Amino acid sequence: MKTRSWTRVSRIAIPALLLVALAACSSGPVRRVSEPAARLQQLTVNVDGSWTAQVRLENYSSIPMRFERFDLVLEAGGQEAGALRASPALDIGPESADVVEARLVPAAAAKLAAADALAAGRSLPYSLTGTVVATPDESSKSRDFDIERNSALSPAPGLPGVLR
């Protein structure tokens, strides 16, 4: 008698559990929008004294994002260098990154700090503060993300005037 009631319960319980499991899977992947990041990948001191900065934009979201623009203040060697601005209108996939070039004419004190680091073969500390404007995939509204990054660049061997 016990075997028969267990069989009847299992005929109902097992399909019910399978339906619950299938329903849980049907919701799809989680769509998470995370704060993006920006950092310097490379800084090149040009012959005319200007700098070309390769700004790496990092999308930590689980969905693609369109990076509309950025406005970042660069400080190099403890000295304010100037503003890095660009409007790349660049689509970056989920959990991916891409690089955008921005040029600036640095302030004299920052120019000296970079020249000193290159001549001595030592690293150059830098900070980026400002805003990155990005639009999450399938959204018509862009969002402003605050950026605050402290790091350092080192001279690239064999590439004069390049810090990575």
Automatic annotation (TrEMBL):
Annotated organism of origin: Marilutibacter spongiae
Region of interest called Disordered, as start-end residue ranges on this chain: 135-164
Superkingdom, natural source: Bacteria
Name of this protein: Late embryogenesis abundant protein LEA-2 subgroup domain-containing protein
Composition bias, Basic and acidic residues: 138-149
